[in-house]
Amino acid sequence: MLYDGVRHLLFVLPALAATAGWALSAALDRLPRLVGRAALGLTAALAALAVADAVRLHPYQYLYFNRSVAGGLAGASRDYELDYWGATGREAMAWVTRNVPPRAGGPLSVATTADPWVASHWIEGDPALRSRFVFELGGPPDLRLATTRWFEHRSTGKVLHVVERMGVPLLYVIETAPEGAPLVLEGGDLAVALPPAPGWGGMARVEPGLDRAGYALRRLRGAPAQAEAWILTPRSGGVPSLEELRGEVAGVAATLLGGSPGDFDAQPVVGPGASGWVVTSAFAASPGAPFVAIAAARVGGAALLLVARYEDDPEASSREVLGWLRGARLADAAERRRP
Predict the structure, then answer these.
(1) Are strands 302-310 and 291-299 parallel, antiparallel or unpaired?
(2) 268: which of 79, 219, 276, 321 lies 20 to 30 Å off by Cα?
(3) What gap in Å lies between CA 201 and CA 203, rounded to an integer?
(4) Exposure pattern of 11-21 as b/e (b: 16+ CB <10 Å)?
(5) Which of 141, 80, 82 is nearest to 116 (CA)?
């Protein structure tokens, strides 16, 4: 298997195009006149369509996908990575420098899916811009320039801007920890939105062979806390019933806290858009051990599994987890990310 496929072969494409042109010319010489003219007309129409797509893609022509085979850029976006090299970083940073105001407390930190220099290169010659942004991260970023590679565009946060071509998103500019924004966990065919949680942010987890969508969440400000979340949807192989979710919560609790699933009596949690179960370590944990909450809920036609670990007040931590479950809902179209 050749990793990243045709990108390693781009340098031979001109020679392949010349060979294809020679083969077409030779074939036309051997075809009946009318058939040859029809074939030539079809070839010219397809070539014109490819040129038109290349113009619309400018300056990202390397993202071209054949319409008849791959379904064009829109069809390919559902099955293939698009801006692998992060070339859209220049356009994204141009937007950021014009539209994101300077921060009084210091420069804004920027994370990128591709190598940081793909975006930072375009502001290196401007001392004023260099003082406003930093790409060498010493902690969680303030902004994320996320392409669709590795599903980084599904990172939580507020979408400030989208770089797109032909109606297809190529890169999202995301504010990672906005105040008052829900945590939207994208599952592909459905997404779950959790109530706003100050200081929290996360990224999608891509695990080969695992159908369910996963997220690694952590508190970016305040006392250390982290969580793992999974979204189960009809596309991921089915959504468990409430009773099945109760058993899964008890099983995970037994694994993390010790004992057997029968030792844990999951408590019911009900909200306007969700119903589920929760087990916590509030009374089982030894002194100094982190507070752990294991929860699961049915949210419309999807399900949410959550394992959260806190190093601060168990009561406040428990309230936050319960608030997430009670306020969970299906995300609406405007909150979701494509593809």
Answers:
(1) antiparallel
(2) 219
(3) 7
(4) eeeeeeeeeee
(5) 141
Segments making up each domain of the chain, as ranges: 12-57, 73-176, 181-339
Task: For 173, list phi and psi in degrees, rounded to 5.
Answer: -95, 115
Give the pLDDT mean for 239-264: 92
In the numeric block, which tokens belong to residue 221? 């400000």
Give the Cα separation of 205 and 215 in Å (integer).
Answer: 5
Q: Strands 213-219, 274-280: parallel, antiparallel or unpaired by DSSP?
A: unpaired
- Whole-number Å distance between alpha carbons of 135 and 229: 28
Query: What's residue 62's pLDDT?
Result: 86
Instruction: Give one DSSP letter per residue of 184-235, joined into a string.
Output: EEE-SS-EEEEPP-TTEEEEEE--TT--SEEEEEEESSSS-EEEEEEEE-GG
Is 167 exposed, middle or buried (CB count within 10 Å of its CB: 0-12, 13-18, 19+)?
exposed
Q: How far is CA 100 from the centre of its chain?
A: 22
- Quote the CA–CA distance of 52 and 165 in Å, as a whole number: 13
Nearest to 316, CA basis, from 339, 293, 335, 297: 293
pTM of the model: 0.84
Q: Which amino acid is at 294?
A: I
Q: What angle do CA 277, 207, 80 make, to 5 degrees?
A: 125
CATH of domain 181-339: 2.60.120.1690
